[in-house]
Amino acid sequence: MEINPKQSASFVARTLQNKESKQPPAEDTATVKAKARVIFSFWSVVLFLGLPLWLWTTSIHRANLPVQEMLAWANGKACEVDVPLLFDIKAPKLTHSEAQDIIRGTSHAISSSKNFDIQRVQWQLSETLDGPRSRNSEEVALSIEFLEDSSSSAPIAQLLLQSKTLLVQYSPAMLRSNFGVYSVDIGKVIGEKLDEIFVEEQLSIEYLLASYSGCNKQLSRFSSTGNNADHFELSAKQARRRTRSLKYAPTYHISISLFTPGPVPTSWDIEAAISEYLLPLLESYSISNFTVDTQLQLYAPFSPSMRSPEFDWIKQQWIIREEDLGGFMDTANWPLSPNIGAGPTLNFILYVPDESLRPLVINGSGDHSWIIPQWGGVSILNHVGRIPTILSKEHLRPVLLTFSRQLLSLLGASDNPTSFPQQLQMLTRIHTLSLILSASSTLGSLAQLAESLATIPIPEEVALRVTRALDHLQMAQRNSHAGRFRSALEYARLAKAEAEKAFFEKDMVSQVYFPDEHKVAVYLPLLGPIGVTLLASLFKEIKKRRPTKSQ
């Protein structure tokens, strides 16, 4: 069938005419204005109400932090260590000039040893033949008392065990020299003794500074450029001590437990033993407070994970392998005290083995007690004969003395010096420095966190705690430089507490783990459909109005 071109053209023309006739009628002016007002109203609500409200409810308040000062403490200001050691001279039978000669000889001996480079030595003459002088006794690191002894052939320096006093015995003949040679000899003996007393403290301070990333001090004894053998030996020794001991706390809780695998002993006179053998130590440890509780647990066998002790036929002893000490306690069934209260808990366990397993000692060393780092200590009571039903105070005396030594070790004390007051002073100075470094490091981390994450809020409480921490750090360092270490320790403790509270503020911590991607995931499903509709209507209205404006 052939199609006529004229008919085809007329068909197309009729089709187009029908389409034109089916177009919707043009909107009147009132309708156009109404639609424009609706679109304008929606966008007005979004721009002038929704957007400001959203910005106001989602805005992040960031209080001003003294970032530069915080970073200054973290990057070296805390390392401006000045640990003065004031030595008080009491020489009632020496003249002022004779005492000065001895001080010069001692100072020369100290400077020659180069072990006091990190500590500033000061001297005072509180009592001489010329007359008494006075000074604050709290600032005295060591009192050096001279005792005249005509029978002495050589000067003797001895540290008293129950006081911070170095007793020096000398004879008048040692001072009779026109050139002060004998006075120099006395000073040399005193200098050697002082070096022996303070060497552990000096090593601990140097190790703290060498371990702190913000310090750039070149410390020869812990420098890798020095003798490698000495470097590793000293570092390992100090690392073991720091790993074993707990961090300083103003309060500690002590739990003393008696465990026995059988029905005896049924009781122990622990209160009287604590009052006589342990309480004097706790009262003397004036830089912290202690609380003590006790418990007795019957039918408490060894841990199932521990291998049974072996009998040594030669020594007639039961042996515990050193590798089994970690599994000695049955932590699943023994009611050991957890950390309670604000301070850490120290557990001390007295274990009374069965009569068939006594004496029970550690293989190799033959000891019957050991320390568990940062946890507590264990002592085995190898009582000869049958275990009494009641352990008396005399039975518990060696055990409580062992626990006392373990307690001091866990608190950071060393065997040198042997004087407990000197150990307490040494711990005060070391804890002060450690707390200053720790607080400074925390403030530095907080400053870096605030600069790197601009989306986390910084409440005013954080800024207030940071300000207080910086003030306490300043006071701690000022008191430390003045030799008032008890006050410096208290300020350093407050600074560390404020710095940690500021760093672990709950409002900041929750935002650290809420990245921007999570916000997009929350807002996009809600605002996407609404935004597309509003934008489409706006573009359509603009497109419709363009021809009108062009005409």
Report mean pLDDT, rounded to a whole number.
84
Q: If you consult CATH, what is the topology of the domain at 250-410?
A: Collagenase (Catalytic Domain)
Classification by helices and strands = alpha/beta
Largest sheet strand order: 3-2-1-4-6-5
Word description of this protein:
The protein is of the alpha/beta class and 551 residues long. It contains 13 helices and 16 strands. The strands form 4 sheets. Strands 3-2-1-4-6-5 form a 6-stranded mixed sheet. Strands 9-7-12-15-14 form a 5-stranded mixed sheet, with helices on one face. The longest helix has 35 residues, at 516-550. The chain starts with a helix and ends with a helix. The mean pLDDT is 84.
Keyphrases for this structure?
alpha/beta, Chitobiase, domain 2, 16 strands, 551 residues, 13 helices, endoplasmic reticulum, Collagenase (Catalytic Domain), glycoprotein, six-stranded mixed sheet, PtdIno-glycan_biosynth_class_S, GPI transamidase component PIG-S, 49% helix, flat, five-stranded mixed sheet, GPI-anchor biosynthesis
SSE diagram, text form:
Layout: H1 5-21, H2 29-58, H3 67-74, E1 83-90, H4 96-113, E2 119-128, E3 131-132, E4 140-148, E5 156-159, E6 165-170, H5 181-211, H6 228-244, E7 251-259, E8 267-268, H7 270-284, E9 289-297, E10 310-312, E11 317-320, E12 345-351, E13 360-362, E14 369-372, E15 376-380, E16 390-391, H8 393-410, H9 420-452, H10 460-481, H11 485-503, H12 506-512, H13 516-550
Parallel strand pairs: 1-2, 1-4, 4-6, 7-9, 7-12, 8-16, 11-13, 12-15
Antiparallel strand pairs: 2-3, 5-6, 10-11, 14-15
Helix pairs in contact: 2-13, 3-9, 4-5, 5-9, 7-8, 9-10, 9-11, 10-11
